[in-house]
Amino acid sequence: MTKTGRQLSGETVYDGKIFRVERDRVRLPNGREATLEIVRHRGSVVLLPIPEPGRVILVRQYRYAVGEHLWELAAGSLEPGEDPAEGAARECEEETGWVPADAELVGRFYPTPGYCDELMNFYRLTGLARRTEGTAAIPDDDEDLEVRSFTLEELTQMVRAGEIRDLKTAVGLGLLDRTL
Fold first, then answer.
1. Which of 73, 114, 147, 170 is most buried (CB neighbours < 10 A)?
2. Distance between CA 3 and CA 16 in Å, rounded?
3. Model confidence over 41-85: pLDDT tens digits?
4. What are phi and psi of 134, to 5 degrees?
């Protein structure tokens, strides 16, 4: 039988648009007590849009936290209560300008379980059609996006050369069936 930890007390130290930070006093499964700071996140979707066999759409965007433009799989936070497959379709249209006919869950991972409860849901999106209101993405106010399709060979070379430095993208590309 697996023991679990138990919260003894807690407080919210920050409550923002994307996440909340809590400081909890807990009793760990081994009986010890500790104070832990936890980032609470409602979850996210990571997109693997396949416009045609052997190609994947990535977005290049400026990431202020690291001061760089990065090539990444498009991704986004889920809305409160949103079904992840619906969130994946919404994010695909918003960030790439493509609307998927099918969304297949291919993996679920915690990116930083030491201090965050975010669960990333990776979706393979196929049957892509351009948005009817135009072809461009609809970026959020804090996004500066460039959208481009790559072959699997190009993406493998980009990872090996250090041109793709985003972990969710490296993991997501590893989930793809090489027979796309």
1. 73
2. 32
3. 999 999 999 999 999 999 999 999 999 999 999 999 999 999 999
4. 125, 180
Rg of the chain (C-alpha set): 18
The one-letter code for the residue type at 81 is G
Asked whether the beta carbons of 89 and 100 are under 8 A apart, the reply is: yes
With b meaning 16 or more CB within 10 Å and e meaning fewer, what string describes 36-51? eebeebbebbbbbbbb
- Residues with Cβ within 8 Å of residue 64, at least 6 apart in sequence: none
Over the stretch 122-164, which tens digit does the pLDDT of each residue have? 999 999 998 766 555 665 566 668 999 999 999 999 999 999 9
Cα separation of 78 and 43, whole Å? 6
Copy the structure tokens of residue 97. Answer: 């300008």
Sequence-ordered list of residues with C-beta below 8 angstroms from that of 94, at least 6 positions apart, any chain = 76, 137, 138, 139, 140
Show Cβ contacts of residue 81 under 8 Å, excluding neighbours closer than 6 positions.
Answer: none
Q: What is the pTM for the complete model shown? A: 0.90
What the chain holds in terms of domains, given with CATH numbers, is: 6-41 (no CATH), 44-108+120-175 (3.90.79.10)
Q: Is 76 helix (H, G, I), strand (E, B) or coil?
A: strand
167 phi, psi to nearest 5 deg: -65, -40
d(CA 118, CA 154): 30
